[in-house]
Amino acid sequence: MKIYLIGYMGSGKSTLGKILAQEQEMNFIDFDHFLEEKEGKSIAKIFEERGEIYFRKKESEYLNELLQGYDNTIISLGGGTPCYGDAMERIKAAEGTSVYINVGVAELTQRLWSQRDHRPVLKHQDTPEKLEEFIRKHLFERSYYYNQAAVKLMVKGEPVGELVAQLQQKLF
């Protein structure tokens, strides 16, 4: 079994994925960390040195690698991973189940405000209002891809343990 967690940055893909993988005795891969290891530098550094186009090209290449192997694994994809090129089509065609972790704009804004310096696409959002407007627009653009996931988990402030239990019920 393979599970692909998708959703906006800060939605909890990695947090939920790690716990779910541990409870189900599965492997876990955080795609952002996987990509950073392959490239030998942080995503922020890749954006700074090579730009977003280079990053998205490499992201697509490494996604192919993950789609081909890694059985019995939960993979937390990057927030933009399914939204570029034919990535979502490849995810849907691959062995496994895609899960959209759907978190509302207000909750995402609250979660991401303190993290924006470490996230290249959020770096220039210098007020909570600008950040919220950016997330709202970005999420609107990406929702077309996210909503193609086979399973959807609506998050409305529930504790992590409850969300993991909901995922288990939907997937196993």
UniProtKB/TrEMBL annotation:
Residues that hold Mg(2+) according to the record: S14
Molecular-function GO terms, alphabetical: ATP binding; magnesium ion binding; shikimate kinase activity
Keywords, comma-separated and alphabetical: Amino-acid biosynthesis, Aromatic amino acid biosynthesis, ATP-binding, Cytoplasm, Kinase, Magnesium, Metal-binding, Nucleotide-binding, Transferase
GO biological process: amino acid biosynthetic process; aromatic amino acid family biosynthetic process; chorismate biosynthetic process
UniProt superkingdom: Bacteria
SUPFAM superfamilies in the record: P-loop containing nucleoside triphosphate hydrolases (SSF52540)
Cofactor(s) the protein requires to work: Mg(2+)
Pfam families hit by this protein: SKI
Gene Ontology cellular-component annotations: cytosol
UniProt subcellular location: Cytoplasm
Gene3D superfamilies found in the cross-reference section: P-loop containing nucleotide triphosphate hydrolases
Binding site for ATP: G10, S11, G12, K13, S14, T15, R119
Protein's pathway: Metabolic intermediate biosynthesis; chorismate biosynthesis; chorismate from D-erythrose 4-phosphate and phosphoenolpyruvate: step 5/7
Enzyme Commission identifier(s): 2.7.1.71
Main location: cytoplasm
Cofactor note: Binds 1 Mg(2+) ion per subunit.
Quaternary structure and interacting proteins, as annotated: Monomer.
Family as reported in the entry's similarity comment: Belongs to the shikimate kinase family.
Function as written in the Swiss-Prot or TrEMBL entry: Catalyzes the specific phosphorylation of the 3-hydroxyl group of shikimic acid using ATP as a cosubstrate.
Identification of the protein by name: Shikimate kinase
Organism annotation: Leeuwenhoekiella palythoae
Name of the gene this protein is made from: aroK
